[in-house]
């Protein structure tokens, strides 16, 4: 049917060649659908956290919970470490943008360079998160355990740590998945897969996923570390 439409109109049918009626490549459209569904999951978790947070009389002060960092953290530097983590993730998003742009320009060398930088940024973020989890565990924090008192000095419930480890762990899993995806993209680039296809469209799809992960972190950062 698509061929007959093309024959009568002289134009390529939007259903042929893997394109949707919205003139968007099907793979990219499906990625948007996936990210939309994933945003519902993160949204549900964060809304649940916010509802519990503001329905509770007392809550730990993030300035006292997240006040240390490796190699010299003295407990008087609130949010320094998580700010470094956030900066790393933002920079990795910039290098991902540059990788996508280089792909559009069919610049294989630049794509390889920026993908490697993005992967390094993702691994650095995961390493920081691993240190933070380890530090909190040694402080006595885990699912079902909350050693941090409320800001008013009263005894706190484990809701804070339950939500923290669940949501940041879920986000960390997404970052880890994004690193794996980018490694696969790097291998395919080095194998000239995209050069043979004549386009780097898969790099753009991977970029959508990576930017989504970065955007979600903004909300996670705000909910847990700032409020």
Describe the protein.
71% of the residues lie in helices and 0% in strands. It is mainly α and 227 residues long. The protein has a single domain (26-226), classed as Cytochrome c oxidase, subunit III, four-helix bundle (Four Helix Bundle (Hemerythrin (Met), subunit A), Up-down Bundle). Helix 4 runs antiparallel to helix 5. The chain is elongated, with a radius of gyration of 22 Å. The protein starts with a helix and ends with a helix. The relative contact order is 0.14.
Shape: elongated
Order of helices and strands: HHHHHHHH
CATH topology: Four Helix Bundle (Hemerythrin (Met), subunit A)
- Which ranges are low-confidence, i.e. pLDDT below 50, for 5 or more consecutive residues? 1-17
Proportion of β residues? under 5%
Offer a few descriptive terms:
71% helix, single chain, Four Helix Bundle (Hemerythrin (Met), subunit A), mainly alpha
